[in-house]
Design a protein that fits this description.
This protein is an alpha/beta fold and about 400 residues long. It has helices at about 45-55, 70-75, 85-100, 115-125, 190-200, 225-235, 280-290, 300-305, 310-325, 340-350, 355, 370-375, and strands spanning about 10-15, 20-25, 35-40, 60-65, 110-115, 135-140, 145, 160, 165-170, 180-185, 205-210, 255, 265-270, 295-300, 330-340, 360-365, 385-390. α4 (about 115-125) links the parallel β5 (about 110-115) and β6. α9 (about 310-325) packs across α10 (about 340-350).
Amino acid sequence: MAGPVSYGRAEERSLTFGRFGTVHLYYESPRPSRVVLFASGDGGRNLGVVDMARSLASLDALVVGVDIVHYLGELARSFEPCGFPAGDLEQLSQYVQRELDFPAYVPPVLVGYSSGATLVYAAMVQAPSNTFRAGLSLGFCPDLTLGKPLCRGSGLEWTIGAKPGSYVFQPSATLEVPWVVLQGAADQVCDPSSTESYVRRVRQAEIILLPKVGHGFAVQRNWMPQFREAFSRIFRMEIPSPEIPVKSLSDLPLIEVPAKKTAGDLLAVHLTGDGGWGVTDKGLSAELAEQGIPVVALNSLKYFWNRRTPESASQDLARILSRYILAWGKARVMLVGYSLGADVLPFMYNRLPDDLRQRVVSVVLLGPAHGSRRQLGECPPAYCRGCLSRQRGLGRIPR
């Protein structure tokens, strides 16, 4: 790989986080508009991948450099039966953005070189939708040597490879975000024609073949312009958002899930977990909709990114209830919270105006995460578990 070029203006610092160990941050402005998680190849943090990171930092990106050798070693030593890099990477992204005081959460782009290119693909396929904005792989092979298998997640499939510890990931027909592969036409490690055939079987994927480029990406003039253009083009692509702008509630990240059939006078307001609009939250809202209960969901990742007081959060809940009781013509309300949503929902419910509280027939708390102190000020350490019903008086809702 090539040595340093002219992308040396990027500020650099390091942080330590979980099984990633030390990660290196590159950025040129204090508030970049883009976030990149960059997975190295087997050579770790060498000059070539550092130069790639600096190049992306010059395109208004915060680049978080991950040493894949360290990460995969820690993953192999973990107690989980299978690895879930999608979740690890999402947590890293949230941690770094909070440390740098980002005003709002920015879904990251995953970028990887060589073995990191393979990890990027696997993480994208196993991730819930809306976890990552896109992926960019340089020098991609479909196989990766691991100390344990990766979890299936949202659809990752693999077979055992010929080499010991090798897993071969299968082309995905369900990938929901763009994936761009830059492949050297002279690559002697990952066969270009086989890679091209593979990528064309992946939904939302494209391949850019690079003449005069081998697996080492040595001569930058032969690939750097295409690399920078592919990255920039990702942000010109339309990425559909599940959130809907509601005229009177445009400041809130809301998702509407209409009922599949007409049934009764009940609507549900659902506060998601701290991962946002993920698989569990989608499934929960979809099940309620199948039962004839329309749902409006609040994306907790976005809403609670900045600290909220119980009073201000309750006022926003009151706005949601007032709007949808009228718009959907419902008389009764079920409040549902999952994970972080379950942590904060009791404090919001207890501060509702009396007329709206009388509309709430049940408060359902699923898997409280006990993480509300960071997102809601002045929360006591008591939390509720299970299903709380105002009519039956089950449990205790903290104030």
